[in-house]
TF-B3 domain-containing protein (Salix suchowensis), 107 residues
Amino acid sequence: MEVLMEKELTRTDIELCLAFPTSSRRAFSMPEGETAVYFEATDTLEKKWNFRLSRRSVITGDWLQFVRDKGLKVGDKIFMWREEGATGVRYTVRAKRKIFGVWVNVQ
């Protein structure tokens, strides 16, 4: 498992797009001449989300719907990782919220 990001969400992240770490962009193969790569990530409920990662290192696509469905707020955390298996590459996305000092999954 390769952790791609662990980030506390900002207002920009929940209102416009998710800023993605440039250093983690290497986990995605972006064809020459393309401006973005599309990928599918699975959440804690096994729901699949279609995201778009641009050369500018921002995630769009289903991102704002994910934010709305999960009720995410500034200060919540987002985690994303990549796993390689016999069936190919799988991306996973998790959101967490601090409740009484403990980080818990947002369903």
